[in-house]
Amino acid sequence: MLSITSQSHPPKPSTLNPYNNQPLIITTRRSFVSVSTLIPFVLFQPSKLIAQPATSNNKTILSGLTSTKSWFRFYGDGFAIRVPPDFEDIMEPEDYNAGLSLYGDKAKPKTFAARFATPDGSEVVSVVLRPTNQLKITFLEAKDVSDFGTLKEARKIFVPGGTNLYSARAIKIKEDEGYRTYYFYEFGNDDQHAAVVAAVNRGKTIIAGVIAPESKWVDDGVKLRSAAVSLTVL
């Protein structure tokens, strides 16, 4: 989804454990929206912000996001996400129509459920939808992203191999029927920096990803994290 690949540079060893066993619990969907203006970097939120080199384990998740309230809110199939200003819709016409044409007895799945980019195409916000049983073989329908395993166990599903994991966090959002879990990961290599937020709803995995060159993440990382964090399951 993010098209981030391992480069010739060897991964830099992480000096911090990116996992935090204490999930962030937000009591209501509304409060999550307001807190998302403060959360540090995405989503579902990292315990330690590594957009800039972190030298302390005390980085708060409230230090790396910006308000997205004024941004355009895109509504997709079972989700919504905020789009940063100046980002353009780059979905191709065939992406919108995918699934209408039949190949044998199966419809061609859409690659993306949403896709936006800066005018130069260097920074991208994407959302993809996949049946959970395509990501992890199971006879049971996944109802929550935690059904993929712990935050650490699910890393292999959502984080490309050969990249450096900078931060990871499980976030619980209170909804009408209980809590929904979101998994957040921030990772990259010497050339690219990305963040992913993943959630599950009724057997469908919703993955929001943002990516930019490492050189641009210094200036735009907060904005991109905030876009990823704005993912909401409807």
Automatic annotation (TrEMBL):
Gene3D superfamilies in the cross-refs: Mog1/PsbP, alpha/beta/alpha sandwich
InterPro entries per record: Mog1/PsbP_a/b/a-sand
Region span, Disordered: 1-20
Domain of life from the UniProt record: Eukaryota
GO CC annotation, single: chloroplast
Designated name of the protein: Mog1/PsbP/DUF1795-like photosystem II reaction center PsbP family protein
